Amino acid sequence: MRLTIDKRGASKKASSRYPFVVEVPDAATVGDLKRAIAAQVKALSPERQRLTVGADKAALADGDSLGKYDLADGATVLVKDLGPQIGWQTVFYIEYAGPIALHYLIYNFQSLVYGQTFEHSALQQRVYLLIMGHFIKRELETAFVHRFSHGTMPLFNVFKNSAHYHLLAGLNLAYWLYSPATAQGTALAAQLGSPLLLSVFTGIFLFAQLSNLSTHITLRNLRPPGSRERRIPRGYGFGLVSVPNYLFEIMAWAAVTAMTRSLAAVLFLAVSTVQMYLWAIKKHAQYRREFPDYPKARKALIPFVL
């Protein structure tokens, strides 16, 4: 089957190679077509390509056969160059490394950050351990648990994605949570450092973290290695909501916020919750479209409510 490849979006004035023709087997997949295009345009690796047909802006999925899109001999496929790419796993490593580094530096180098040295309170010590543990857990999950449905993303997006973690979860939280205002000996540290309250909020945080890990393992087991297969998730947490991993994430940061009563933590919790709400609604709608037998009673993010 011969297909015409033309350029979509950007101006063609510097693209004299377009349009051009590639030849693929009749039973070829979208992935096969991308590799055929890359063979003719060396700079356009399969990861950089976004293929569409006609006026439809929905991208052709790599694993689908070309026949699914009614592509016949002589049809035209439009390609858009997504630019330099970076692996999603690498993106996750970068995102979570920022808060780890910032919390470590701000907690341990007080004189450079605050211009003085002081003894950390029990509250600050506990929060430091919990937050560092959270992001180290994230790094380990990235290495050993997650299976990514998309191999790469545009390189530029790594800066946008990292800003949330580096600025809000890293610099914002660390600077205010470890400041002299709640150091050992202050009235605020005494008020917030009740051993009972620290134990209660630590228990909630750890419960949420272990539950979050459980849901990530469930999602991993849905997709065989090397596959992008999608199935309805079931099991712990999924009987109530479509994205219990987000629910447990919100619960963990709500515990940190209640423990510290910090406006910095409130800001991070609010921004994170809004973002996860938007992702949850999108994922819930996607599940419902994709699976006709998707459980009707299951909510998106908040059990029995939303």
Automatic annotation (TrEMBL):
Its EC number is 1.3.1.93. It is an enzyme of class 1 (oxidoreductase). It comes from the Eukaryota. Keywords: Oxidoreductase. This is 3-oxo-5a-steroid 4- dehydrogenase.
